[in-house]
Specification:
single chain; 10 helices; Rossmann fold; alpha/beta; 5-stranded mixed beta barrel; binds guanosine-5'-triphosphate; binds zinc ion; 6-stranded mixed beta sheet; OB fold (Dihydrolipoamide Acetyltransferase, E2P); about 350 residues; Ribonucleotide Reductase Protein R1, domain 1; binds magnesium ion; globular
C-alpha cells in the first residue's frame, strides 16, 4: 500500500505543478471509431502524470492531455486511461503540447490490482519486449525462490526473461556462474554484472539496445545503480542497504520509461508488486516452469500438479537429479502461496 500511496501522491503533486489537470478516466482502446480517421501523429507514452502524459515522438517530448471525449468513455475494469509504453495518436496544440485522441491496441501489458478495488486493474506499462530480473550475489544474498517467482510471473506475461546477477564484486564469479547454470540451460540469458567495477555492463547494454525492457527485482539489488552506471547522467536515486538487515527499502516510486542514450527504453519498476502473480491460477503454475514442462509429458495424469500424484515424471526427475531440486522447492512454495494451504 505504501508504494501506491507514494506514487499517487507524487503524481498529484507533479500534475498540480503542470496545469491542474482533471483526473484521467478509463478508456477502451479502439472504441473510438469516429476519431480514428488517420490524422495526427503516433508517439510513445514515456511518463504518466495525473492530468496527461509525456509522449515521445521523433526525439521530441510532447505533453499531451486526453481529448474530452476520451475521458467520458469508461472501461469498468481498468483504472487508468494510458500507461507508459502505450502508443497514442495525438495532435499538436502548441509548442511542446498536444491532445491525444486514441490509445492504439496494446501488444501486452503489465498490470496490478487497483488498491481500492481489486476487481479493477491498473495498467503499469504496455508494449514491452522483455523483462530483466535483477538479483544480487550478496547484500541481499541471492534468493533463488524470489528469482523463480519473478520468472514465473514473466512467463505468465508471455514476455522474454533475462536474469542479471549484480554485485559480482562481492563474491567469486565462478561459483555464481555454476549456481546459475540451471537457468542458462533452460534458455534464459544470464548476465553477471557489477555496478562498482563495471563488469558485464557492455553485454547488458547490448541486450537492452533497441528494446523496451522492464527492470525488476527485489529492493536493494542495485537496479537504479546499474542504470546510473550504464547511463551516466541519469542520476537515479539510490539508497544504502540497511546495515542491520542487509535489505534495501524501496526508493524508486514513480513509473516512468527511461530513455537511454544508446537507444533503449527501460522501466525501473517500483517493486515486486506488478509481478505479484496476482493473475496466476494454481493450475497454471506447472506450465510456467519450463524445465518441468520438458518432462511433464511423461506424468501419468495430463493435469499433474507434480505434488503427490502417482507416476509423476517431474518428481522422479528431481529424485534422479535430472531436474534441479531448488527449482522444485520454489515450485512447491509458489503453489502453496497461491492455493493458500500447504501441499503435502
Ligand atoms: N558492492 C556493490 N554494491 C552495489 C552494486 N550495485 C548497487 N550496489 C549498492 O546496493 C545498494 C542498493 O542499490 P539501489 O540501486 O538503490 O537498489 P535498487 O534495486 O534500485 O533498489 P530499489 O529502488 O529500492 O528497488 C546501494 O547501496 C548501491 O550502492 C554493485 O554492483 N556492487
Ligand atoms: Mg531503485
Ligand atoms: Zn507430475
Amino acid at each position: 500500500m505504501k508504494d501506491d500511496d507514494l506514487v499517487q501522491k507524487k503524481d498529484r503533486d507533479e500534475g498540480e505543478r503542470q496545469q491542474k489537470p482533471a483526473p484521467l478516466a478509463p478508456f477502451e482502446p479502439g472504441a473510438n471509431a469516429l476519431l480514428r480517421v488517420g490524422t495526427g501523429l503516433v508517439g510513445m507514452v514515456i511518463e504518466v502524470l495525473s492530468g496527461g502524459c509525456r509522449v515521445e515522438h521523433g526525439g521530441e517530448v510532447v505533453w499531451c492531455v486526453p481529448r474530452g471525449i476520451l475521458k467520458k468513455q469508461r472501461k469498468h475494469r481498468q483504472r487508468n486511461l494510458v500507461a507508459v509504453g502505450d502508443r497514442v495518436r495525438f495532435m499538436r496544440t502548441g509548442q511542446g503540447q498536444g491532445v491525444f485522441e486514441e490509445v492504439l491496441p496494446r501488444r501486452n501489458k503489465l498490470t496490478r490490482p487497483d488498491p481500492f478495488n481489486p476487481a479493477m486493474e491498473h495498467v503499469i506499462a504496455s508494449n514491452l519486449d522483455q523483462v530483466l530480473i535483477v538479483v544480487s550475489a550478496q547484500k541481499p544474498p541471492l534468493d533463488r525462490e524470489i528469482l523463480d517467482r519473478y520468472l514465473v510471473a514473466t512467463e505468465n506475461l508471455n514476455l522474454a526473461a533475462m536474469i542479471c546477477v549484480n554485485k559480482v564484486d562481492l563474491e567469486p564469479e565462478e561459483g555464481l556462474r555454476e549456481r546459475m547454470q540451471v537457468y542458462s540451460r533452460m534458455g534464459y540469458r544470464v548476465f553477471f554484472t557489477s555496478a562498482v567495477t563495471g563488469a558485464g555492463l557492455d553485454a547488458l547494454k547490448a541486450a537492452l539496445k533497441d528494446k523496451t525492457s522492464v527492470m525488476t527485482g527485489y529492493s536493494g539489488v542495485g537496479k537504479s545503480t546499474l542504470l546510473n552506471a550504464i547511463e551516466p547522467g541519469l542520476d537515479l536515486k539510490v539508497r544504502e542497504v540497511s546495515e542491520k538487515t542487509g535489505q534495501g527499502k524501496h526508493t524508486t516510486v514513480s513509473v516512468r520509461l527511461l530513455q537511454l542514450s544508446f537507444g533503449a527504453y527501460v522501466l525501473d519498476t517500483p517493486g515486486i508488486r506488478e509481478f505479484g502473480l496476482w493473475r496466476v491460477r494454481p493450475w497454471e503454475v506447472p506450465k510456467l516452469f519450463r524445465d518441468f514442462e520438458e518432462v511433464a509429458g511423461d506424468c501419468r495424469y495430463p493435469k499433474c500438479f507434480h505434488v503427490d500424484e502417482p507416476d509423476c515424471a517431474v518428481r522422479v526427475a528431481v529424485e534422479e537429479g535430472r531436474l534441479d531440486p531448488v527449482r522444485y522447492k520454489s515450485y512447491r512454495r509458489i503453489l502453496e502461496s497461491l492455493t493458500g494451504r500447504r501441499q503435502r
